[in-house]
Amino acid sequence: MKCLVILQESRATIKVDGEYAFGYAKSEVGVHRLVRISPFDSNKRRHTSFAAVAVIPIQGDGSTRVQINESDLRIDRFRSGGAGGQSVNKTESAIRIVHIPTGITVTCQNERSQHMNKASAMAVLQSRLDQLERARQAQMNAEHTQSLTDISWGNQIRTYVMHPYRMVKDLRTNFEVSDPDSVLDGDIDGFILSYLSASLDKDEDDR
Hints:
Blueprint: E1 2-7, E2 12-17, H1 21-25, E3 30-37, E4 46-53, E5 73-78, E6 94-99, E7 104-108, H2 114-146, E8 156-161, E9 167-170, E10 176-177, H3 180-184, H4 189-206
Parallel strand pairs: 3-8
Antiparallel strand pairs: 1-2, 3-4, 5-6, 6-7, 8-9, 9-10
């Protein structure tokens, strides 16, 4: 996987690219607690810090379109008609397309050929599906952001202790290691896998 880190005044944004990136990274969502001797305290006292992690999937760039499968479409052909029942075209050039998974229906009879009406209807359907997908992504992002609890003691999912002993423990799975330096350097595979395993077991129990 590849990571891009952008540092700001009180936050950092990390973009992770790779197979199943979101599935792995979502295990880090929540509040993380660090206990250490602060390097900024001349009296060498122990301090506790908190950081909240949110993970938001990026579904491609703004130009990405929803893929439309022909098997998901029902296409009806019929004769187009004008105002007052006046015939616009004596052939079945009008097109009605139903996107079965969403129920979105688009009808086009403005053009004089079936091919042109179908192309116009598909363009409208594509636009509506793209709009629906953008709304779904926005809702998903909002839910991920709202899932964060207060950034304070008692709400943490994982604790990193540098003093008086050395340990990192995930409070959701009880998985722990005694080398916080390696974890802070990015060795979090054990935490990710234990979380995914626990989530899978929970899903099985809920069925």
